[in-house]
Amino acid sequence: MTGCPISYEALLDEEEIECPNCGEFITVVIDKTIDAQQYIEDCSVCCKPIIIDVNLNQDFNRILCITND
Fold first, then answer.
1. Average confidence (pLDDT) over 26-46
2. Would you list the domain boundaries of the chain?
3. Which of 5, 16, 26, 62 has the most crowded CB, counting CB atoms within 10 A?
4. pTM of this prediction?
5. CA nearest neighbour of 63 among 8, 23, 15, 27
6. Contact between residue 20 and residue 66 where contact means Cβ atoms under 8 Å apart
7. Interacting residues of 18 by C-beta distance below 8 A, sequence separation 6+
């Protein structure tokens, strides 16, 4: 197959967040192809769920809102 190879790194972004349950810092992967998204990811340290809201502000910067309920 010829042509330009797809770089999946350009589509994903790693963010370090603080778990609202245990306070430990963990790394989550954000899909940069979706402007507004909400998903639940379990903390890799305490295994409790974290609600992650991702939105773009007016300057096209990503805003993360991390909650535990």
1. 91
2. 12-67
3. 26
4. 0.76
5. 15
6. yes
7. 24, 25, 66
